[in-house]
Amino acid sequence: MPKKEPTPTRPCLLLLDGHSLAYRAFYALKDANLTTTDGQHTEAVYGFTSMLINVLRDEQPSHVVVCFDRSEPTFRHEAYEHYKANRQETPEDFRGQVSLIFEVLDALRLPYLSLPGYEADDLIATLAHRASERDMNVLIVTGDRDALQLVDERVTLLMTRRGISDMTRFDPDAVVEKYGLTPVQYPDFAALRGDPSDNLPSIPSVGEKTAAKWVREFGSLDELVRRVDEVKGKVGEKLREHLGQVIHNRQLTELRRDAPLDVDVEQLKMGNWDRDEIHKLFDTLQFRVLRDRLYQSIGTPEPEAEEGFDVEVAALGPDEVASWLAGVPEGRAGLAVKGTHGSGTGRLDGLAVAVPADGDGRQRAAYIDLTGLTEGDEAALRAWLTDESKPKALHDAKGPLLALWAQGLDLRGLTCDTALAAYLAMPGQRSFPLDDLVLRYLHRELRAETDNGGQAALFDDPEDNVGEELAVRAQAVRDLADALEAHLEPRGGIRLMREVELPLVRVLAELERAGIAADRDYFTGLEAEFGAAVKQAVEEAHRVVGEQFNLGSPKQLQEILFVKLGLPKTKKIKTGYTTDADALAQLATQTDNELPTILLRHRDQTKLRTTVEGLIKEIADDGRIHTTYNQIIAATGRLSSEKPNLQNIPIRTAEGRRIRQGFVVGEGYECLLTADYSQIELRIMAHLSQDEALIAAFESGHDFHQATAARVFDLPPEQVDGALRARIKAMNYGLAYGLSDFGLSGQLNIPVAEARALKEEYFEEFGGVRDYLGAIVAQARHDGYTETILGRRRYLPDLTSDNRQRREMAERMALNAPIQGSAADIIKVAMLHVQRALHQRELRSRMLLQVHDELVFEVAPGELEALRELVVSQMCAAYDLRVPLDVSVGVGRTWQDAGH
DNA sequence: GAGAACACGTA
DNA sequence: CGTACGTGTTCTCC
Q1: Is the dihedral of CA A121, A125, A131, A136 positive or negative?
Q2: CA–CA gap between residue A540 and residue A259 (Å, rounded)
Q3: CA A815, C1' C2: Å apart?
Q4: What Å value separates CA A644 and C1' B7?
Q5: Nearest in space to A511 (alpha carbons), one of A828, A821, A822, A889
Q6: What is the C-alpha to C-alpha distance for residues A499 and A416, in angstroms, rounded to an integer?
Q7: How far is the CA of A556 from the C1' of C13 (A)?
Q8: What angle do CA A370, A373, A374 make, to 5 degrees?
């Protein structure tokens, strides 16, 4: 669930443990067996460099240094002769890779260091200490748990989890959450537990659990030693017996913060790397893909430093919230929250409010720690948050809203969501990080400004740092809301935001919170059944081919199908010839070999099995599946659904539909109801094109495809057979996607010439459609964007590209965007109206899902007919098209039964 | 190990 | 050489 709110980037020293990371990389990639052509192994240097590139990209440190161990004995060896005595010899293949890492660091102009007698950890501890004293933030990257002791308010630890780039971020809270110990307590714990990797002995029958329990109970090892007689039982005896050893361990687990390093933190500032040298080195190492990644991710030098935010933040203590909120000036406040959210719920830890500047022009903000509120505070905060007349702005509000709800709070008066506004301004972008938007629209850095420029003002109390960072975000959101509205206003996007997208946030949050009930036992049974079918298909395939192979590997499949069996070649793809379902179906008809059919069945069943597995994993404790809707992903204005994606649950095949039977009505409700728009995109096409023949086809009362086919082939509708209808149906739908003659021919399995002729015949009857489609592309090329019925834009700069492929792609997008996008507009409006009507009539029934043109509801007892009427009327009336909107409804115990 | 490529489900 | 998505698996990287 947890999706952490991003924290602002600020100047910081990045400290890496070279050997620790190199080893991790080596072992993670050992099976990959990476070597250059002359046999030099590169697993460690490759993995280390790959990780380094990512960390530099993601963390954007201002200073960096990589610390290495030395081969000489350290002070720990002197104190304890068996220190690390159990270490295995360095693997042969690892040899020489550390010096290659040095070469990479040289070329990147990144400093690295080591010191005789000290381990990298001690150097890191020392430098972290020195940087802290200078008010810098520190980020440590290592795989060594000993570094946990260094974590504090200013020092964050990224510890590799499994491999090398899968890292956990530890701030003090995270350390406590994970280990139940503070960072300061960690070395005490490590001493008690012992450490096999350092060869520190442990106390017999005392493991991590007991060690941690003692440290928690007594607070520290010192205290435990002082009161060691209080420890009862056998373990107490063992402890007393080994106390000397533990105390000795303790001297070794402490990292030295006073290593005599002759280096000033300021010397570690990042510089520009040597492109030539990188090219040469990567040539010898034969890093091709990595070179591209390097240049792509951090190839462009930093933009010139921008100003930060000048904001005065008050960390509100107990009983200060009410009075502070009472003094908030008129005007829109910016909000920023600290917490996590996902799967229809969340948690809120803190909240920053930035208010309009008053007389002296100084920006004011407050940070409210949600964990320490008095009753009065909470009442005041609740009143302010829910006061419709207090306008507020927030970035990506749906998650915070869920977090507020989980806390028993609510939010009203939201007049701008800066992520939504940015989405409407730049619908093609797929993410909208606040710092990027701030740079783009406000020409500022997302950080606090100080009088001395550069470095952020840091408070003495590190707690205030969280507050300050959040306050900066709140202030940025406030300013950004104004800037984005000013941008959208002349482009006609304000109404769409205020009247559709913004109110929809709450509706989507309600859907996510409700979730849909799942029948876990049923799904489990289904999974087993699909699994058995997969197994059988695998066995059959192996038998037919006469050898074992991986059916899930397109690469091996190509080898089997086209080389070993010599079957006809299929469509070319990058890596050879496709083995997709179309191709396999083709092969099945072309040859006598039963393999393609077996493979198709295997694909089917595998897909179904993994779908069910994915669903089972997402069933929450309440027995329901809570998807997350993304409102700011799809370039056309549609929603998307993730974790899990409930917008692609199978429906086409009977086998697939069985999955829908696992989505059931929840406890206390009567049944599920689904309502979907029939042919909404075609109706929109009729509306937009104003083609009278198409409009007439919708009004004829006949089946639409049948009616259009009748017109094209000049037959009475009753005489249109299935084949003719299918042809025109493919045409009807294809048009909205920019279907080519070639594509149509492929789809209908007819020659291209025939497809072209069919299209001609179609357009003879529906000329308005052709005119419209041509006009829409021309308009989009002229304006640079398309527009939906509600004025939602999609920008398509490629319409004027010299590259034919790109241009034609953009043309198809231009054809489709107004149609798909208008359908998205309509169902969004429908959702708002339905939800409003449900509340107004105080019905207990609730909306659960949206699947582009379908809504799914859970019907409360006795409300079926009222709900049906409400839903149909609201959906039909959502928008006034030239043709009526048709809605069909189904009811049943499961999603499948409620289908139609 | 991460990222790309492939394959496939929905509207 | 039909649009829009999200997810799972395998393979490449060198």
Answers
A1: positive
A2: 66
A3: 11
A4: 19
A5: A828
A6: 11
A7: 19
A8: 165
Beta bridge mates, A675? A855, A889
Q: How far is CA A638 from CA A344, A610, A679, in A?
A: 20, 25, 16
Q: Half-sphere exposure (CA, 13 Å, Cβ side) for A497?
A: 28
Peptide bond before residue A111 is cis, with ω within 30 degrees of 0: no
Is the CB of residue A309 less than 8 Å from the CB of residue A363?
Answer: yes
Token digits of residue A53: 């590139």
Q: Please, are residues A97 and A45 in contact by the beta-carbon 8 Å criterion? A: yes
Chain A residues 857-896 with Cβ under 7 Å of strand C are: none
As a rounded value in angstroms, the CA-to-C1' distance for A677 and C7 is: 27
pLDDT in tens, A720-730: 999 999 999 99
Give nucleotides in strand B with any atom < 7 A to a protein C-beta: 1-3, 5-11
Identify the band that residue A86 occupies on the pLDDT scale cut at 50, 70 and 90: confident
Category of A620 on φ-ψ map: left (φ > 0), alpha (ψ -120 to 50) or beta: beta
Token pair in block for residue A808:
């034609």
Instruction: Say what percent of chain A tops pLDDT 90.
Output: 77
CA–C1' span, A552 to C10, in Å?
A: 7
How many helices (H) and strands (E) are present in chain A, helices listed first? 35, 27
Q: What is the pLDDT of residues A286-298, one digit of tens each?
A: 998 899 888 877 6
Interface residues 647-706 of A with strand C (CB < 7 Å):
647-648
Which tokens belong to A367?
Answer: 């940070």
Nucleotides of C under 7 A from a protein CB: 1-14
Q: What residue type is A636 in one-letter code? A: T
Q: Which of A211, A210, A158, A175 is nearest to A51 (CA)?
A: A158
Q: Which of residues 420-439 of A touch strand C (CB under 7 A)?
A: 430
Of A317 and A196, the one with more pLDDT: A317
